[in-house]
Amino acid sequence: MNKILIADDHDLVRETLAAYIRDAGEIRVDQAADLDETLSLIVKNGAYDLVLLDFTMPGMTLPEGLLRTIEANDGRPVALISGTASPDVARRALASGAKGFLPKTIAPETLISAVRHLLGGGIYAPQHFLESDQDESDSPHLTPREMDVLRGICEGKANKEIARDLDVQEVTVKLHVKTLSRKLNARNRTHAAMIARDLNLV
């Protein structure tokens, strides 16, 4: 059975990614919330067949954090995951020894394919992303009310709870969710929370 370590300080993101991978079959998935915990788990459990490192979690730097993880993991595959890193960051990570770069916008089935490719010794780097000129500083402009709703989403609240907290109609909250998701290019609530956290919006 392959063993994978997912390191990300956002519980919702980590659990979602872990669930996708576990559902794909015979894979054991461990989780860490920062770089220190990542390195400790590698020491405790031995090298992992694949480590997925969040680019913005506490303790993580490029290339230092990446190189420390590669060394601790005995040279086995280490890939970066990020919702906001620019193509330039992805290219630097690959040049520093990362075996892959997985945007958090990746579809579940593509994630599984990428993980299998990495486990098989391949390198995963979405060419269309690497060749784009996206700027990581392009933060979307959200209204104060959209920010209120986004905070509620990040706290795991349902629309009804957010509406009650803000003293507005539930349909109003739904409208804000739709608008802010479009501004963040988010596919759903979970994805919006991932992006908001990576952009330090909440």
From TrEMBL:
One example of a Gene Ontology biological process annotation: regulation of DNA-templated transcription
HTH luxR-type domain segment(s): 135-200
Record keywords: DNA-binding, Phosphoprotein
Extent of the signal sequence: none
An example Gene Ontology molecular-function term: DNA binding
UniProt cross-references to CDD domains, sorted A to Z: LuxR_C_like, REC_NarL-like
InterPro entries found in the cross-reference section: CheY-like_superfamily (IPR011006), EvgA-like (IPR051015), NreC/VraR/RcsB-like_REC (IPR058245), Sig_transdc_resp-reg_C-effctor (IPR016032), Sig_transdc_resp-reg_receiver (IPR001789), Tscrpt_reg_LuxR_C (IPR000792), WH-like_DNA-bd_sf (IPR036388)
Domain Response regulatory stretches: 3-119
Modified residues (4-aspartylphosphate): D54
Name of this chain's protein: Response regulator
Organism: Thalassovita mangrovi
